[in-house]
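wait is this the right file?? whatever heres the structure
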């Protein structure tokens, strides 16, 4: 049984499929368009420009952010974005820091840090030391939390037992 991938890029298509399904379910009966793209080699501002929603995220213009999988929910006068940062190795504080900076700059609706190899050193930081505060982003009244989890390459979905914070 295969429990990991050779290259990180092998994860993106299945993560796109998962995010598309998740967003379709979350926003069913809403008048919006949903797009999910593998954009690991394209800067975020280019993708948002291409989909006509850059005006909602002017802070990303010229900032060289590459998100692995991007979800966009687009209404007539607003948009929400969703990030997935994928790893094929066990997760580290560096991985968490990368996504946290992206989240603080862009303020996505949701953000996921997913690894096909497991939580790695983040398991200690988040579960044993209890530092879920390191997942916080957003501002004002609404503080959001990044979600960290193991990606199940056999089932092509998030391993719900591993997700932090617990839902």
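ok assuming it is, sequence goes like this
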């Amino acid at each position: 049984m295969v429990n990991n991938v050779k290259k990180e890029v092998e994860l993106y298509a299945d993560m796109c499929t998962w995010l598309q399904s998740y967003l379709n379910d979350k926003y069913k009966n809403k008048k919006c368009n949903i797009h999910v793209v593998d954009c690991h080699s394209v800067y975020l501002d280019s993708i948002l420009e291409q989909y006509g929603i850059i005006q909602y995220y002017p802070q990303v213009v010229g900032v060289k952010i590459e998100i692995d999988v991007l979800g966009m929910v687009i209404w007539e006068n607003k948009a929400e974005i969703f990030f997935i940062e994928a790893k094929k190795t066990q997760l580290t504080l560096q991985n968490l820091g990368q996504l946290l900076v992206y989240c603080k700059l862009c303020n996505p609706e949701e953000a996921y840090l997913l690894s096909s190899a497991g939580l790695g050193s983040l398991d200690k930081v988040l579960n044993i030391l209890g530092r879920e505060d390191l997942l916080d982003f957003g501002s004002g009244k609404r503080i959001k939390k990044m979600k960290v989890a193991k990606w199940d390459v056999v089932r092509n979905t998030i391993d719900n037992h591993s997700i932090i914070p617990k839902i």
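The two ends are 29 Å apart (CA to CA). so i think its the right one actually
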